[in-house]
Design goal:
Layout (H helix, E strand, L loop, with lengths): L2 H13 L4 E6 L2 E6 L12 E4 L11 E4 L4 E4 L15 E2 L4 E7 L2 E6 L4 E6 L6 E2 L4 E7 L1
Antiparallel strand pairs: 1-2, 2-3, 4-11, 5-7, 5-10, 6-9, 7-8, 9-11
Length: 138
């Protein structure tokens, strides 16, 4: 969840005179409470459910998700994946797409290497910082 979304939830809480609001998005849930005497409900925000910890990625260079959204390995269902196992990628090559709020964001390789592992499934939700690919350095 982005900070602007959290701010919007806090505004809704104040504007509607609510004492508590819970919002779920994918596997994440956040509850924001407003208590009398506390000027900012943000200070009372606590995660209601935490996502299970992902296993650490294998050794090597990783390409991580720069935002939360839905990961796609290909531009359309009919297209071939942007990268395959064993393929060499250069800096700037598109390796996938993350859809967030109806916007398609290209994920580009920041390092050159050979794709050793694809860690995210096509069409799966991903979290910020989640490892998507593992590369062997060139």
């Amino acid at each position: 969840m982005h900070i602007e979304e959290l701010r919007e939830i806090v505004r809704l809480l104040k504007d509607e005179g609510l004492s508590e609001i819970t919002v779920s998005e994918g596997d994440s849930t956040i509850t924001v409470r407003q208590t009398i005497g506390h000027p900012s409900p943000i200070a009372a925000a606590t995660p209601a459910v935490t996502a299970p910890a992902a296993p650490p990625p294998p050794d090597g260079l990783t390409i991580e998700a720069p935002l939360v959204g839905t990961f796609f390995r290909r531009a359309t269902p009919e297209d071939a994946p942007f990268v395959e196992l064993g393929q060499t990628v250069r800096v700037g090559d598109t390796v996938g797409i993350i859809e967030a709020m109806k916007v398609m964001n290209e994920i580009k390789a920041e390092k050159a290497g050979r794709v050793r592992a694809v860690l995210a499934e096509d069409g799966a939700p991903v979290e910020y910082g989640q490892a998507l690919f593992v590369l062997d350095p060139l």
